[in-house]
Amino acid sequence: MLPLSNILARKVRTAISALAIGVGVALFLVLVGLTSILREIADRATNVDAHIMVMPSGGPALLLGGGLPADKIEARLRAIPGVSAAIPVLCWSLNMAGRDQNAFGIRPEDWRFFAAPDRIVEGRPLAGGMEMLVDTRLAAAGNLKLGDAVERLGRTFTIVGIAREGVAGRVFVPIDALNECLQNDTRRATFFYVKATGPEAVEPVRKAVEDLRLKAFTLDEYYSRLANLMGDMHLVIGAVVVVAGFVCFLVILLTVYTMVVERTREIGILKGIGASRLQIFGLVMAEAGLILAGGILVGFAMTVGSRAIILHFQPLWTIEIPAIRFVYAALLATGGTLLGALHPAIKAASQDPVESLRYE
Amino acid sequence: METILETRGLTKVYRADGVATPALRGMDLAIGKGDFVSIMGPSGCGKSTLLYLMGLLDTPTEGTVIVAGTDTRGLSDGGRTRLRRAHIGFVFQRFNLLPTLSAEDNVALVLRLRGLPVGSAPREMLAAVGLEEKRRRRPNQLSVGEQQRVAIARALVTRPTLLLADEPTGNLDSEASGRVMELILRFHRDLGQTVVLITHNEQVAARAGRLVRMRDGKLV
């Protein structure tokens, strides 16, 4: 009753405090959610029915262009005992839906390694020629439909299929068509996916590939390499957690401290009419708790709104915010709030009632 | 007569910046159950200090206060709070109602702080002081006389053994002052309420059964 009436009596300050806590909560949820972009890329890149990625020796982790002679390398890879399939991929950047996308040039018959048949939600897999297959995210973001003509690299591609998102690339085109567009005389590949005959063959195959002076990673290793790129992101996440918690701490500290100083006389009255130190402490903490509850709700609403706005302008970004992270955000705000309210609450509880009653 | 409150050698010295200012100098006073005692004296003679010490809101530098047979010397803050809750009701000069609560909630708060059931007691108490119709109003929507009546209702809703009133009519005009004194006298008469009242007003003091005068921190 009293905590609620007190914070309602100071509506503007309560609203500003709740808003500031909400900003801390939303900052945490949205920024941490944004770091899921890299993980989503890593998930997609390794979502292939293969075991090993083969790249030119000395190449970077993320590749573009035709560094490998596709047929020659394929023949060498297939000659390695334990290799079940060698799948050439030519990656090239195409501007789609306002952003550069890594288009995967693949042989149409290799589609089965990238997705099960039911992954195609509209149309069909690539057959050859100037065809294009996109995933549902890109189709939605670029308003692309089956049969649409897409002018890229001086050629016109026709969209023949739309796959449910999660496949390795957002754009697939036939590798021969892409090589033709890039004016490669022979079939070139950026990298290969290699499928081993079984898990026990993966390590021997990898070693054999390295003997060919090529770089080979298992898909797990490749995922880890991409994950290492996320290492800095973890620092960012850590910094965001600290900042968000500190925002809550500071806001509540200042708000509750001001409340306690303003209400010095009221605290004296409360003691005069029988309130114990613990009750005064509890009242102050309850007021902080009510502001916190409001702040958390505001933060959740801001998060949902911010995510919708970001995805409206950047539809291909991934902002994953699992339900458990809302719980973490609430706990983070609660921790900051408890710490922030503690000092003022103790100060209020230990105030001398006589001095409080004489306070003007 | 049973003694409900007693002070023995009660001394209070305030210290600020190394300067000691005695407010009470070894005061001995006994108040019997059902007494109505007025304490008079010039400003700064220690009346309010005495009241705060008797109400266990402050601790003496020397001496002790005995409330309902309990010597409060060495009692913890929690122990003093429990004793205050059990026996003492306060009426302050400046009413000291909580501004964000209605009159009824101000009265109910005392019961809530003690963990007592609220029920209709606040409303009945406000009816007893003639403010039932205005029970939902906040303090700033009441006249000063009405605020003091709410403060009296708040002090008495738990039926305390002892009512301590610090110049309850000090901020009131003569009409409001008269109504407040009538109320206090009525509760004293009808409920056998022990009352200790600090006042500057000779007319108010004259209505008490016993008058105590103070000067320079001592009884005269």
Task: Present the secondary structure layout.
The complex is a heterodimer of chains A (about 350) and B (about 220).
Chain A: H1 2-9, H2 11-34, H3 36-45, E1 52-56, E2 68-69, H4 70-78, E3 83-96, E4 99-106, H5 111-114, E5 120-123, E6 131-135, H6 136-141, E7 149-152, E8 155-163, E9 171-174, H7 175-181, E10 188-189, E11 191-196, H8 199-211, E12 214-218, H9 219-229, H10 231-262, H11 264-272, H12 277-313, H13 323-349, H14 353-358
Parallel strand pairs in A: 4-9, 6-8
Antiparallel strand pairs in A: 1-11, 1-12, 2-10, 3-4, 3-11, 5-8, 6-9, 7-8
Helix pairs in contact in A: 1-12, 2-10, 2-12, 2-13, 3-9, 10-12, 10-13, 12-13
Chain B: E1 3-16, E2 19-32, E3 36-40, H1 47-54, E4 62-67, E5 70-71, H2 77-87, E6 88-91, H3 103-113, H4 121-128, H5 144-156, E7 162-166, H6 174-191, E8 194-199, H7 202-206, E9 210-215, E10 218-219
Parallel strand pairs in B: 3-8, 3-9, 6-7, 7-8
Antiparallel strand pairs in B: 1-2, 1-4, 4-5, 9-10
Helix pairs in contact in B: 3-4, 3-5, 4-5, 5-6
Number of strands of chain B: 10
CATH topology of chain B: Rossmann fold
Sheet bearing the most strands of chain B, described?
6 strands, mixed
Structure class of chain B: alpha/beta
CATH architecture of chain B: 3-Layer(aba) Sandwich
The CATH class designation of chain B is Alpha Beta
State the shape of chain B. Answer: globular
Largest interface, C-beta within 8 A: A-B, 23 and 27 residues
What value does the average pLDDT of chain B take? 89
Strand content of chain B is 25-35%
Helix content of chain A: 55-70%
* Number of domain units of chain B: 1
Number of helices of chain B: 7
CATH superfamily of chain B: P-loop containing nucleotide triphosphate hydrolases
Write out key terms for the chains shown:
heterodimer, A: 360 residues, alpha+beta, 2 domains, 10-stranded mixed sheet, two-stranded antiparallel sheet, 14 helices, 12 strands, 19% strand, elongated, B: 220 residues, alpha/beta, Rossmann fold, 6-stranded mixed sheet, 4-stranded antiparallel sheet, globular
